[in-house]
Amino acid sequence: MHQENREVHDIETLIREYGNDVLRTAYMYVKDSHLAEDIFQDVFIKVNQKLHTFQGDSNIKTWIIRITINTCKDYMKSAWNQKVMQFTEVHENTLTGKDEFVAVEQEDENRLVRDAVIQLPQKYKDVLLCVYFQDMSVAETAKLLGIAEGTAKSRLSRAKDKLKLSLEGRI
User: Fold this and answer.
1) What DSSP string runs through 43-98?
2) In 3D, which of 16, 36, 17, 14 has the Cα closest to residue 26?
3) Alpha carbons 70 and 2: distance in angstroms, whole number
4) Which of 141, 8, 144, 12 is nearest to 67 (CA)?
5) pTM for the whole thing?
6) What is the distance between the alpha carbons of residues 26 and 24, in angstroms, rounded to a whole number?
7) Which of 5-9, 13-17, 153-157 has the lowest mean pLDDT?
C-alpha cells in the first residue's frame, strides 16, 4: 500500500490539486501575498523531498496542509521576520473600475473577516483554518494538529465566539 501511494502522487499533480489550499493557508498566516508565494514554494520543495516518507496514515491533503502550517509557524518564529515585519507595511491589491461598488464592499467585508481571523490566538486560528478554509472535518483537524477531537471542537467554538465579538457591528 505504501508503495502504491508513492506511485500515485507526483509533485505536479499535488501542486495542481492542492496549490491553492497551500497558498490560501500561507496567506492567512503571513498576511502578505509575496511571502505566501515564497512559503508555497518552500512547502512544495519539502513535499517533493519527503513524498517518499508519506505513509498514508492521513490523506495527502492533510499531510500537505500540516507541512504548510509548520512552514508558516517556522517563518513566523524567525528573528529575521520579527524584525522585518515591524518595518514593512503590507500592501493589498485594490480593485479598480467605475462599477465595482459591490465588489469593493465585498472585498472590504472579506478583509475585515480575514483580519479578524489573523488576529486570533494561534490555537484558534489553526482549527478555524483547517475546518473552514480547508474543508476538513473536526476529526481530521484534531488528528492534523495532534489534539483531542473534543479539544478541537472546543477551540472551534471559542474561535467562532471570538470572531463574532470582534466583528459585531462591523459586518
Assistant:
1) HHHHHHHHGGG--SSS-HHHHHHHHHHHHHHHHHH-HHHHHHHHH-PPPPP---ST
2) 36
3) 24
4) 144
5) 0.57
6) 5
7) 5-9
Query: Which 8-state DSSP code applies to residue 170?
Result: T
Q: Which tens digits make up the pLDDT trace of 120-156?
A: 888 998 898 888 878 888 998 999 889 999 999 999 9
User: What is the Cα–Cα distance from 9 to 52, expressed in whole angstroms?
Assistant: 10
86-105 burial, b for 16+ CB within 10 Å, e for fewer? Answer: eeeeeeeeeeeeeeeeeeee
Q: If you search the block for the grid coordinates 480547508, which residue do you land on?
A: 134
Q: For the segment 42-98, what is each residue's pLDDT rounded down to a tens digit?
A: 999 999 999 888 887 778 998 999 999 999 888 877 755 555 554 444 444 444 554
The answer to whether 48 and 11 have CB atoms below 8 angstroms apart is yes
161 Cα distance to chain centroid: 20
Nearest residue to 44 (alpha-carbon basis) of 21, 77, 75: 21
Distance, CA of 114 to CA of 97 (rounded, Å):
23
Cα 133 from Cα 27, distance rounded (Å): 11
Q: Are 43 and 71 in contact (CB under 8 A)?
A: yes
Q: How far apart are CA 127 and CA 60, in angstroms?
A: 18
